[in-house]
Amino acid sequence: MLAENPTLTSVRVVTTCCLPDGELPHVLMCLNDLLDDFSADVTIIDAYKRTGGVRFMQYVAAREDPDEMNAFYRRWLFNAATEMAAANGDLESLQWLMESYLPGEFLTKAVAAAAANGHLRVLQWLHEQHHDRGYWGNTEMCGALTHEHAEVVQWLREHAVPRAECRVEVMDAAAGAGYLNIVKWLHDEFKVSVRSALSNAMSCRQWETSQWILEHGQLLMPWINWDQPAKDGALGFLKFLHSHSIGSPGGFTVSSARR
Asked: At the top level of its lineage, which domain of life is listed (predicted)?
């Protein structure tokens, strides 16, 4: 009964001392209801935000009435909670949500949240145990690239290749984060455009990636502002631009280099 109806710790302590053999379970529940003056206004999201663990969520969920709760609202609670658990790398809470709270419900954000926060173990579990319940091969790699989770990036490359419609966005994220190996892979393997990727690479001061794009991207007359590489001290990149007659110093280039 305790597993089905989790109770407050204070109630469990008292009843363990006074009713050590678990007799009179209805008394335990009456005591719990008397002391519980908060769960009616708390959702599983509130519970997870307060404790960052599964037990309080289980307590709140046991007091929900699925027949009275709007089904769409309950799905929203589920997806928000799974997103938080995945972002925290909390596999215990995620497993309970997926296998007990709403088994079979589709995940909208958990895969991306786990990837963006570098939780490879969570991704592997989701992929192996619940692959059909999440979005794979979309833009989940973008978060891993932006936050420099190299191990996750490599794993996603091997297990969740971005779909064609998502590859430009992944290319842009890779260029901005300086993941030249991913830029090369997307360009060579899938012929993904690098036009917007060049802008991302330069704005994020990824000069090696910028140079590779200019050398291999077959861009027609790319416009290059010399001020930013000059300000950043990227002499090698400036020499490359000069030797290939790509752009030219502007009125603020020299003053930018002095800063």
From this structure: Eukaryota
Q: Give just the sign of the alpha carbon dihedral 144, 167, 220, 216.
A: positive
Torsion angle in degrees (nearest 10) through CA of 150, 228, 208, 144: 10
Q: What is the pLDDT of residues 111-157, one digit of tens each?
A: 999 999 999 999 999 999 999 999 999 999 999 999 999 999 999 99
Residue written as token pair 């309950």: 74
DSSP symbols for 166-204:
GHHHHHHHHHHHT-HHHHHHHHHHH----HHHHHHHHHT
Identity of the residue numbered 130: H
Question: Mind listing the pLDDT tens digit for each residue in 167-213?
Answer: 999 999 999 999 999 999 999 999 999 999 999 999 999 999 999 99
**CB-hemisphere CA count at 13 Å for 176?**
17
Distance CA 146, CA 154 (A): 14
Q: Please give the Cα distance from 254 to 227 (Å, whole number).
A: 8
CB atoms inside a 10 Å sphere around CB 146: 15
Take residue 26 and report the two structure tokens written for it. 């209805």
pLDDT (0 to 100) of residue 39: 54
